[in-house]
Amino acid sequence: MKNIINIIKTLNPFTNQKIDNKILYVIKILLSALLVYFISLVIGEVLIIGGSYLFGYNATDKPMPFDIMLLCSYYGYLITILFFIIYTKKINKIELDKIGLNKNVITFFKGMLIGIISLLLIVIPLILCRAIDFSGINNNINWLLLILYLFGYLIQSSMEELICRGYLFHRLKNKIPTLFAMIISILFFSIGHLSKLFDEGIILGIIGITNLLLISMIWTTTTLKDKNIYSAIGFHFIWNFILFNIIGLNLSGLEITNSVFKFNVENTFLTGGSYGIETSIITTIVLSVILLIIKRKVIQITI
């Protein structure tokens, strides 16, 4: 019983006790990430629901429009980012550069460039093989929503990268082999994105999981190479925003409502169906090539 009590005390995420046991260390880091994330989400939801009532919305009589509800959740992630920063500095008592938040912010733009190139290498073949047809520019676009989505996706991507590639990956690789830290952070990120993957069938679902793992490996590898998470944030952010709000294709099962361009989907298999190009075999090929190129530039990965 005493040993159990000691283990519970050791796993307490609100203590900064040194842990020599690697298994207990991994459990504590995962537990702390989940707990801080959950607490921040609850507080964010309370603020969003409370704020929606002030503007005349409620869950039963007058629910918020889809775009407003989605944007509220994205901007609510500012609370999650703030909580992880406070937790890292005040509870863990470590500097932010130890979780990938150093001063080399320029890598953010490198990540954006890689993301844009990746999307072009996927979308252009889809157009050439008539899997999607360009049908013009959207004349009814809501520019305010577009700007709100721009910053919303920046916040959402920053939050996910801060948790997975920032907090989890950096904290874990200090105690366990880097390869294992990569695997755990990649799986943590991927599990949270499995929703709706199999709506179009098992084949596209398997392709989607493969692409999810590939893009996670790209972001983790660039984090390792650049010694910060900014490149991963840049890639993640520009991928979501351009795909959803510029090109106008579904993103992770979200149906587009406000985009600059309009495309008609002609081949659901090549385009990934209702989930979007993240379950496309063309995406698999492009991401595989990009991962190989990036990994060749990583001088050494400590295993």
Largest sheet: 2 strands, antiparallel
Strand order of the largest sheet: 1-2
Quickly count the domains: 1
Helicity, in percent? 55-70%
Average of pLDDT? 88
Give the tally of β-strands: 2
Count of alpha/pi helices:
10
Strand-residue fraction? under 5%
SSE run: HHHHEHHHHEHH
What gyration radius follows from the Cα positions, in whole Å? 20 Å
Shape: globular
Distance between the termini: 36 Å
Class from secondary-structure proportions: mainly alpha
Low-confidence stretches: 299-303
Describe the 3D structure.
This protein is mainly α and 303 residues long. The chain has one domain. Helices cover 66% and strands 4% of the residues. It has ten helices and two strands. The protein has helices spanning 2-11, 22-54, 66-91, 107-128, 143-173, 178-191, 202-226, 230-247, 268-271, 281-297; strands at 132-137, 261-265. The chain has a two-stranded antiparallel sheet with strand order 1-2. The radius of gyration is 20 Å and the shape is globular. Mean pLDDT is 88; it is low at 299-303.
